[in-house]
Amino acid sequence: MAAQFLGGDGVGEAEKKDKRLQDRSHRSIMPPPRRRDKAASCPGATGHPMKLRSCRWFPTMTATPLNLRGLKCPLPALRVRKALKGATPGTLFLVECTDPMAAIDIPNLMRETGDAIEESRSDGDLLVFHIRKASA
């Protein structure tokens, strides 16, 4: 009689191969889920929240996110001032902060610097500002 080599777990190689094939047999072959095209609803959107493609409706635009969550007064306003100082005219900043005083500090900073707040909203504790660097 030929002796069959048994592995450490007491199962032969043929039995291991059969078990591997059985484990794979329950998987169904399905195509990956279809992604909805977010760009279809807006003529200039690319689906990416920070970028718009250039077309006749929208000029080329890239937004610079500033995550200032967790910073307390006066740090959000100071970080926005520093970012605006080094930016080229027309740059858009998406500022997110959780400090409630930023609702007062950032609009006052924009009044001092001459830059524009295009949008300001509050999502619960999160304050979101869309700030455009003014032309020189």
Notes on the structure:
The chain is of the alpha+beta class and about 140 residues long. It is about 25% helix and about 25% strand. The protein is elongated.
Using brief descriptors, characterize the structure shown.
136 residues; alpha+beta; 5-stranded mixed beta sheet; 3 helices; 5 strands; elongated
The number of strands is: 5
**Percent of sequence in beta strands:** 15-25%
Major sheet characteristics: 5 strands, mixed
* Classification by helices and strands: alpha+beta
Strand order of the biggest β-sheet: 1-2-3-5-4
Query: Helical content, roughly?
Result: 25-40%
**SSE string, helix = H, strand = E?**
HEEHEHEE
**Cα Rg:** 28 Å
Which spans have pLDDT < 50 for at least 5 consecutive residues? 37-47, 50-60
Distance between the amino and carboxyl termini: 93 Å
Quickly count the helices.
3
Arithmetic mean of pLDDT: 75
Q: Note the overall shape.
A: elongated
What's the layout of helices and strands?
Blueprint: H1 13-25, E1 51-52, E2 61-68, H2 75-85, E3 92-97, H3 102-113, E4 116-123, E5 126-132
Helix pairs in contact: 2-3
